[in-house]
Amino acid sequence: MKAISIFLAMFILVAAAGCSQDGPAMRNGYYSAVARQPDSDGWKHFITLYVYNRKIVTAEYNARNASGLLLDWDVLTVRRIKQSIRMHPSRIMREYTQELLNMQSPENIRRIPGDNYFYDRFTKLAAAALERASAGDRSVAEVELSYGESRHKHNPLP
Fold first, then answer.
1. Strand partners, 30
2. Which helix or strand (DSSP H or E) is residue 8 part of?
3. Does residue 51 have a pLDDT over 90?
4. Which of 2, 60, 78, 156 is the most exposed place for a label (fewest CB within 10 A)?
5. 24 or 141, higher pLDDT
6. What is the C-alpha separation between 58 and 75, in angstroms, rounded?
């Protein structure tokens, strides 16, 4: 337990050192990006960020199907993804979101080992939302995501 506490403290220090105010100025407000089209299983990935004082202070990343159901609420889909990548999808989405809050940039986020489903989508959506935040443009960014590549590598949703 002590080792975990030390590791977390070191991680926070490193993350704080990596955060810089020298980047492009972001305007306060909510900024969103959404996949232009759903993946082959009908999920449209999205991210919403809240920026305050040039920092991302909250972020939500998820996917929604045509009926409005969030991916992490769909028990059957969660089970299929978890079987394929051996990790709960909600945990992966939360970890990427937390890293974005810590690092303040999608370029600095590391891929979670075994995840070939969420990482590329998350980083592309986050970059598009941050681009809008830098411009102060609160319209929702539509992002072209390539679903085929990840699906053929690990096929998380059989």
1. 50
2. helix 2-18
3. yes
4. 2
5. 141
6. 25
